């Protein structure tokens, strides 16, 4: 009984943390994509060093948070599979695994963006 309560609480807390972080990451990334598209369409680069420093710091912070969310979701999946075993609904476990994979992918892309922008600032 205690194991099922612990697993359901872990699943609920994991989901809210992951949703919160991705809720921050998606608008941030979409805003940067729109700014880049505007810059390409207008033809003037908006790569001012001060603005790029804000982008690097924002990418860096969100990259760390998305890594934390991905790691916690992977840990919750491990706990759910270990405690529940065959009692874990297959669709639920698959959704948790998919969310962890996508969170790690978003972390990888955000970290790459941060490093690329940092390199861009250093080269100027």
TrEMBL record:
GO cellular component: plasma membrane
Membrane topology: Multi-pass membrane protein
Domain called Casparian strip membrane protein: residue spans: 17-109
The keyword Protein transport is assigned to this record: no
Pfam families: CASP_dom (PF04535)
InterPro entries assigned: CASP_dom, CASPL-5
Protein keywords: Cell membrane, Membrane, Transmembrane, Transmembrane helix
TM helices/strands, residue ranges: 17-40, 60-81, 102-122
Subcellular location: Cell membrane
Subunit structure: Homodimer and heterodimers.
Similarity remark: Belongs to the Casparian strip membrane proteins (CASP) family.
Name of the protein in question: CASP-like protein
